[in-house]
Amino acid sequence: MLAQQTRADEMVQYVKEQAVVGHPDADLKLDLLHFLKQQVVVDRADAGLKLDLLRFWSKYPYARFTPAIITRALDPNRRTDISQALDSFVKAHLLEKRVQQGLPFYCLTPEPSMRQWVFNMAAQGDSLRPWHRPFYC
Q1: How many CB atoms lie within 10 A of CB 108?
Q2: Is the pTM of this model over 0.70?
Q3: Residue 44 is part of a domain; what is its CATH number?
Q4: How far apart are CA 132 and CA 106, in angstroms?
Q5: How many CB atoms lie within 10 A of CB 126?
């Protein structure tokens, strides 16, 4: 937990330094980093996974998926982490959760400003990949 928080602080500091230099996308990146930092500290979920979820929803903005389909698309070995991340996105009003015939379905929020935020964050996420360190067994 402490290591994740320190890493998130390093990411925010790096983007702040770029903002001083006048990087054109620094404000948007800083917004994304603050969101991810809050998610890491509050929910203890992996920021990289949440970034992958943002990208997933930017590719399929009008679809509804069950958690099983989302897990299969992202990483079948992280079912619990993906469920926690989906629930945190529902709490943040980025996703809606609907139950149909006993199955939970997730879809991107219909609110235009939140949808645009997801698209912007997913587009900026690739530029933050230097901090994405895969887990090796």
Answers
A1: 21
A2: no
A3: 1.10.10.10
A4: 26
A5: 10
Cα–Cα distance measured from residue 8 to residue 108, given in angstroms and rounded to the nearest whole number: 26
Report if residue 136 sits inside a domain: no
In tens, the pLDDT along 76-129 reads: 998 998 998 899 889 888 899 999 999 999 999 999 888 888 888 777 765 555
| Distance in Å from the first CA to the final CA of the chain | 19
Which residues are CB-neighbours of 18 under 8 A, at least 6 positions away?
26, 29
Q: Which residues are bridge partners to 108 per DSSP?
A: 95
Full residue range of the structural domain in which residue 19 is found: 2-128
The residue count of the chain comes to 137
In a domain, 33, yes or no: yes
> Domain total for the chain?
1
Q: Which two tokens stand for residue 135?
A: 């887990």
Q: Which helix (H) or strand (E) element contains residue 34?
A: helix 26-43
Determine phi and psi for 100, rounding to 5 degrees.
Answer: -135, 120
**Strands, E assignment, the chain:** 64-65, 95-100, 103-108
Task: Give the tokens for residue 86.
Answer: 């989906």
